[in-house]
Amino acid sequence: MTAEATPSLVEATDGPADAGPSVRGPRARTGAAYLRYVAGKLGGAAVSLLAVLVTSFFLFRLIPGDPVKYMTGGRQVSAEQLANYRREFGLDLPMWEQFTDYCGKALTGDLGTSYQFRAPVIDKITEALPNTLLLTGTAFVLYTALGIFIGTRSAWRNGGLSDRLHTGLALTLYSIPSFWLGLLLIIVFSVGMGPIPGLFPTGGMESGGEEGFAYVIDVAHHLILPVVTLVAVEYGQTLLVTRSALLDEMGSDYLTTARAKGLRDDLVRRRHAVPNALLPTVTLIFINLGRTVAGVILVETVFSWPGLGGLFYQALSVPDLPLVQGLFFVFAAAVIVMNTLADLIYPLLDPRVGR
Predict the structure, then answer these.
(1) What own/partner pairs with CB < 8 Å and gap ≥ 24 does 269-278 have?
(2) CA dist., res. 289 & res. 260, Å (int)
(3) CB of 102 closer than 8 Å to CB of 60
(4) Are 178 and 299 a contacting pair, CB within 8 Å?
(5) Radius of gyration in angstroms for the set of CA atoms belonging to the chain, rounded to a whole number
(6) Are 309 and 95 in contact (CB under 8 A)?
(7) Phi then psi dihedrals of residue 193, to 5 deg
(8) What is d(CA 98, CA 249) in angstroms, rounded to the nearest whole number?
(9) How far apart are CA 272 and CA 295, in angstroms?
(10) Which residues of 27-65 are buried (b: 16+ CB within 10 A; e: fewer)?
């Protein structure tokens, strides 16, 4: 063996030893890219929350009406009494001072004191939140499951009679205002129309006086019409998004290969097409999940449901500025947080995202 051959052997021997870092390099770069992606999304969410905080303060001060006069109950009061009310709630301070005071307290979780209830805003929100989650959470589970189920089957039978019927019905219901549909259901199924007797309560969450299992049945009875209203209006959006995403996937080569291997259409749909088509649907699900906290203001108002939506409508009529501001911030924050969670989950569903 010549001396000239020795360096080449050394290089050949050293080569594999250096291969380790080069193999781990792409994985490390991928992790760093994901961390930058997460940091960017969290930073964007923080900026959005700050913008909502500023907007919620100035936006609702454009509402006509004097909250101090509402607090007097329409009684004749002296100018000195009105001044005392304004001083009590800080309405006599300059606008910039009110704003800095509001932001400082909001960052510590203090959303102020309601004018009409004379109670902390956060307490009123906490009190009404479970009622809203019961209504919108129940509707969310139903219309999401219904929309995904019908959407996948409509896409797989694209152009068929059932696809045209489901798509047409979904578009029709999605275009109907929720408050109008709610009023129609109350007229037909609560008040009664012709041979149809009044089967359900016209509003509220309970009849009162019930306990135990009877109370659960009573609340469920009051829950049916508002839930039906929300499901009828909202399921079409999930159906159409799922159907469109699945139609885009159906022309892919890997589905043709799966069929060529002898897999049944049902297995091809469930194991291959649907999982890869769910990314747009995941976005919609998280957005709708954020909206469950906000509730549906018009539906809760029509059915007199004691949730956050009804509380928001009640606060707007005063206007109860701290309560309106606090509710608006909570509604927007819920959507922003859920949108951010969806963005963080995307790379787990599709590794191409965030790289």
Answers:
(1) 269/152, 269/156, 273/246, 273/249, 274/152, 274/246, 276/249, 276/252, 277/242, 277/245, 277/246, 277/248, 277/249, 278/242, 278/245, 278/349
(2) 39
(3) no
(4) yes
(5) 29
(6) no
(7) -145, 120
(8) 54
(9) 35
(10) eeeeeeebeebeeebeeebeebeeebbeebbeebeeeee
**In Å, how far from its chain's centre is CA 336?**
9
330, 316 Cβ separation under 8 angstroms:
no
Q: What is the 3-state secondary structure (H, E, C) of 39-77?
A: HHHHHHHHHHHHHHHHHHHHHHHHCCCCHHHHHCCCCCC
Rounded CA-CA distance 274/277 in Å is: 5
Over residues 154-191, the pLDDT tens digits come to 888 888 888 899 999 999 998 888 889 999 999 988 88
Given a cut of 50, is residue 13 above it in pLDDT?
A: no
196 in Cβ contact with 189 (< 8 Å): yes
Tokens of 290: 């954020």
Specify the pTM: 0.77
Q: What single string gives the DSSP state of each residue in 211-253?
A: -HHHHHHHHHHHHHHHHHHHHHHHHHHHHHHHHHHHHHHHT-H
Residue 33 identity (one-letter amino acid): A
